[in-house]
Amino acid sequence: MQAEKEEEEASPEEYVALCDFTASGSEQLGFSTGDKLLVHAKPSADWWWAELQGVIGYVPASYLRQDAAEDEDDTSLEDPWQDDEYFGSYGTLRLHLEMLSDRSRTETYRQVIVSNSASLRNKVVMDLGCGTGIISLFCAQLAQPSVVYAVEASSMAEHTRQLVKQNGCEEVVTVLQGRAEELELPEQADILVSEWMGNCLLFEFMVESVLLARDRWLRDGGVMWPSSAALTLVPCQADNYYSEKMAFWERPYGLDFTPLQPLAQQEFFTKPKFSHLIDPKDCLSAPCDVICLNMYTVQEMEGEFKFCVVKPGVFHGFTAWFTVQFESLEAGGATVELDTGPNSDPTHWKQTLFMLDKPIHVYGGDSIRGNIVLRRNPVWRRHMTVTLHWNINSSSDNCQVGTKSFPMWR
Ligand SMILES: NC(=[NH2+])NCCC[C@H]1O[C@@H](n2cnc3c(N)ncnc32)[C@H](O)[C@@H]1O
């Protein structure tokens, strides 16, 4: 309460509106892009108490930005996809080296090409976001497509052309530099292959470009690789992480640093922990696919779950990972799957850990029901907020309900 009290007396902070917001209900305050709002209090992560020209009401925090250097931020207002930064990062080798070094990922795409090589003969392939061109080179080397259009928006494209020539594939592979949504392909494709998956499956939202390209360049009856995807979730223990970031403050060097624990919760548990490697023994129940994307239809971004706790333990949070499936070009042929979960070969995505604010003791037979909602950031198009609602029904004491939103990253 003390913190809240001080918060209300603090002087209001100035924020700028990044996009329009229409109030729904008398409690809310509507505004337009560029409005300067005075934030008086932040009762929750999602909704703040703000003032605009003498009118006060609740506003969505994700629509606001605190302006340090005004002119500097204005440029970022125009580029919600932050393409300069995004494609800039793919113009250097760092990320491509990380992806190429991920054998589980890269060998899976090679296996897809090999096991469909006969059916790929004389086909037109579009490789969306080809990067260094590895998938296109597999197609040219391991099958006989008539042409592969390797599409890459970053400056890596000019190096990719060199790699195509260096490996004698220039007869088959044509590198096109540009955004897949904007460039012109000489013809429709029979297969649209892409490695678009980000952390927690969707982060970066490259999937949006894949679906736009599908609608524009994949011929009727054409095949999407991956053909489907699933986000998987499991309630878990995270003792080491919890001890390292929270329990640490209990007795460092014999002193009591617990007043810092609210800060630690805010700093370490607000955003998901990427590159988490969960030990299967820390899973408190069987995992569950909570969001399934059919790459041919409109996708769901929301999913329900019901976990049955199999052993007593401490419920520190949820861990998420994903799987993608590649259907065979031959009717009845085997589907290839890439699984980034803890029971498969590790990948560069690892898993994503969502820490609750307070750990909860759970017991065998307890149920953890709820849902997960992935909401696009209305302003930063490659970012999202993951909101988890859970409801624990435990034989030992009454049910506990909780909810938490995790920004990824803004
Ligand atoms: N699995 C991922 N999370 N990222 C790995 C693939 C990303 C590659 O696709 C390129 N890329 C991403 N979006 C696009 C686009 N719309 N058009 C062309 N290239 C793109 C990007 O420059 C990078 O080389």
TrEMBL record:
Keywords: Methyltransferase, S-adenosyl-L-methionine, SH3 domain, Transferase
PANTHER family listed in its UniProt record: PROTEIN ARGININE N-METHYLTRANSFERASE, PROTEIN ARGININE N-METHYLTRANSFERASE 2
Organism of provenance: Ilyodon furcidens (goldbreast splitfin)
Protein name, per record: SH3 domain-containing protein
SUPFAM superfamilies (UniProt xref): S-adenosyl-L-methionine-dependent methyltransferases, SH3-domain
Alphabetical list of InterPro entries matching this protein: Arg_MeTrfase, Methyltransf_25, PRMT_dom, SAM-dependent_MTases_sf, SH3-like_dom_sf, SH3_domain
Residue stretches making up the SH3 domain: 10-69
Domain of life, per lineage: Eukaryota
